[in-house]
Amino acid sequence: MNSRDTLITELNVLENFDPLVPEEYQDSEYLMLGNLSPLVQSTVITRLNKRPKLIAMDTMNFWMDIAMESLMKVISKVDVLMINEEEVRQLTGLKALPLAAAAVHTMGPKTVVIKKGEHGAIMFEDGKTFFSPAMPLEKVVDPTGAGDTFAGGFIGYLARLGDTSWEAKKQAVVVGSVLASFTCEDFGTKRLQTLEESEWHSRMRQLRAMVKFRSIRG
Amino acid sequence: MNSRDTLITELNVLENFDPLVPEEYQDSEYLMLGNLSPLVQSTVITRLNKRPKLIAMDTMNFWMDIAMESLMKVISKVDVLMINEEEVRQLTGLKALPLAAAAVHTMGPKTVVIKKGEHGAIMFEDGKTFFSPAMPLEKVVDPTGAGDTFAGGFIGYLARLGDTSWEAKKQAVVVGSVLASFTCEDFGTKRLQTLEESEWHSRMRQLRAMVKFRSIRG
What we know:
2 copies of one chain form a homodimer. Chain A is of the alpha/beta class and 218 residues long.
């Protein structure tokens, strides 16, 4: 696709979805830009009267293929980039995740969360690394929406705490992973609709126990 | 391959490598059966005067394809099965790792360690689960031997401690992961040959910090 075609595609997307931010959302301190056209994502940012405390965005290979320029522009404006493993490799041309994350930092985002599906998620910020496994499930009905659940859980937890520290973000990655595990257990949002706070808290404790080990002697 | 051909193949392997256990190894309390013909693995066990405190074994799809019967026999005699993700699925016919591990338990091994390469390792024992990520590396020169390093690190650490508890095994999985990360950084055993205790201890601490998060409030 040449750049004229690309622009037309992008304009079509924008024409079909020109995001208006309702007045009551103008004061949002936490903004999650879901995986949409980077032009739509950028427009949401510019239509807010003041910059949120934290902007996170999700993206995918499709936008890298057709709208790289707009994508790089919106990436430069956000605090947290959420992206899956293969896609961060495509975006940066680097296979090793610590190097790919370092390359993303130079594009703008201070924080990079790399989603590895059933293999968990790894977060990089300011030379620090955090890893959360995915919850090992006995039954996966449909993983569709797991990535969106992860993103929503991540930013929702930070917004609830009102905290954007590294410690809070680590917990937020685990919250995202745990909530996403419920999404996989049924179709659509079915499992999430009946989810009790006690259920995901219990899974948070399980996940915590699953990675805990004593420091070695000597 | 019919069972006669299979037997011939196995006998050929055995003929080429008939393992004699030297007298000074007869008192070994920790036995690691590397990934070899299950007939060779079984022979090692039967040639020991007394059963070691802990027997671990590694295997691969090749033996499932040509020597399933002998493989099941040796699996029934060991305490720890180490196997990679795809292979435990082939062995059990089950995709979900918790279910695959449960199926392996019924074959004999009390402990199942599933190796996921760059995605870490997960261990199941007696209803408990432990997960260790792999160390995120900036440079992977050659992962050949990483699985063997993992296995050697696992059993070597337990033998050093003289402890086969769940707590010790969790540390052993991390030791295996950390040592395997060094193997990947150069060809063959090159990196391991110059490895200092302080270097892998430092990486153990890094890995511990990488999975640590505070329990959630509320």
